[in-house]
């Protein structure tokens, strides 16, 4: 099952590469932002937020924990000061939106709807570092859908028993696409004090170890709904990106890798093209969803008793 053409404006390359929200500051690293096919802002909330107290980062053996807590300028300062500077980059722009109640999400989307430079809105429905809104994800999506005509991508948590059912619910409520996946809640302890290394205790876990979880979520949702999927989680090579496409993604986001390798977008794009060429393909998207297609073929062969 293939998603509909990605409703993301100028993202016209075969497999667009984005940054995961919060993993790149386009205004301090404009060249890195321009090397992507679209830039995703940090999550914007109605009011300014200082975020969680430090320390807010902790490296682990196979990744990183963060507990930023949606630090940001608020919608007023964003549209007045930040958005005009982002527009100067001439990179397709996605804005991540968060909140603590359905009205927060809906009002922020309403404000953003007036700005043509914004291609899509990503609804951060699953931040592990703040209290969640009491309403369901579907209720939030429906309220936002009523306030904006822009593309809405629902960012879902991997810590869900049946993520495919969550995907069906937000798509039925009006989401144009899915972003899979957000970080997972984790804990790191100081080896000497045996106390949490983050001031808040737990944080969002990202990095290479998240990839099998991301693949499972993309794989499940791509078979459950017919919308574009932005796949992310543990991507550090072109092969990682290819696997997300094979599981059903049509767009790939880079996260933790950008902290250590700012040139990753150019490298991963080249590696992804090389992976396609090695298989004799001109378009990587020819492999979109091949993972579950191949599984069905293998099951059919087994059931028929063929070798």
Please provide the count of β strands: 12
Distance between the termini: 26 Å
**CATH-defined architecture:** Alpha-Beta Barrel
Mean pLDDT: 92
Q: What is the percent of helical residues?
A: 25-40%
State the shape.
globular
CATH class bucket = Alpha Beta
Derived from helix and strand composition plus strand pairing, the structural class reads alpha/beta
Chain-wise SSE layout:
Layout: E1 17-19, H1 30-34, E2 39-40, E3 57-60, E4 63-66, H2 75-87, E5 93-97, H3 102-112, E6 118-124, H4 137-145, E7 151-155, H5 163-172, E8 177-180, E9 184-187, E10 202-206, H6 211-224, E11 229-231, H7 238-247, E12 251-254, H8 257-260, H9 264-278, H10 290-304
Parallel strand pairs: 1-12, 2-5, 5-6, 6-7, 7-8, 8-11, 11-12
Antiparallel strand pairs: 3-4, 4-10, 9-10
List keywords for this structure.
alpha/beta, four-stranded antiparallel sheet, TIM Barrel, eight-stranded parallel sheet, 307 residues, 10 helices
What does this entry show, briefly?
The chain has 307 residues and is an alpha/beta fold. The chain has helices spanning 30-34, 75-87, 102-112, 137-145, 163-172, 211-224, 238-247, 257-260, 264-278, 290-304; strands at 17-19, 39-40, 57-60, 63-66, 93-97, 118-124, 151-155, 177-180, 184-187, 202-206, 229-231, 251-254.
């Amino acid at each position: 099952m293939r998603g509909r053409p990605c409703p993301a404006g100028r993202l016209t390359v075969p497999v667009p590469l984005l940054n995961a929200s919060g993993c790149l500051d386009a205004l301090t690293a404009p060249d890195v932002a321009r090397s992507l096919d679209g830039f995703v802002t940090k999550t914007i909330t109605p009011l300014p937020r200082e975020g969680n107290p430090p320390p807010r980062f902790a490296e682990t053996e196979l990744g990183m924990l963060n507990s930023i807590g949606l630090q940001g300028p608020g919608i007023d300062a964003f549209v007045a000061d930040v958005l005009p500077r982002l527009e100067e980059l001439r990179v397709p722009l996605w804005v991540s939106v968060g909140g603590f109640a359905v009205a927060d999400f809906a009002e922020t989307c309403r404000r953003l709807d007036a700005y043509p430079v914004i291609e899509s809105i990503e609804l951060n429905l699953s931040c592990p570092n703040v209290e969640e809104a009491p309403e369901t994800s579907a209720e939030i999506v429906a309220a936002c859908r009523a306030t904006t005509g822009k593309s809405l991508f629902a960012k879902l948590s991997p810590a869900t028993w049946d993520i495919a059912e969550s995907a069906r619910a937000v798509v039925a409520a009006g989401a144009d696409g899915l972003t899979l996946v957000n970080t997972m809640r984790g804990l790191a302890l100081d080896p000497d004090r045996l106390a949490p290394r983050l001031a808040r205790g737990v944080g969002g876990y990202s990095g290479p170890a998240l990839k099998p979880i991301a693949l499972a979520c993309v794989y499940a949702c791509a078979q459950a709904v017919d919308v574009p999927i932005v796949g992310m989680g543990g991507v550090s090579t072109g092969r990682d990106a290819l696997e997300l496409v094979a599981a059903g993604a049509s767009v790939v986001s880079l996260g933790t890798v950008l902290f250590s390798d700012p040139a990753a977008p150019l490298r991963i794009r080249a590696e992804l093209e090389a992976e396609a060429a090695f298989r004799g393909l001109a378009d990587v998207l020819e492999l979109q969803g091949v993972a579950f297609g191949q599984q069905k073929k293998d099951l059919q062969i087994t059931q028929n008793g063929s070798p």
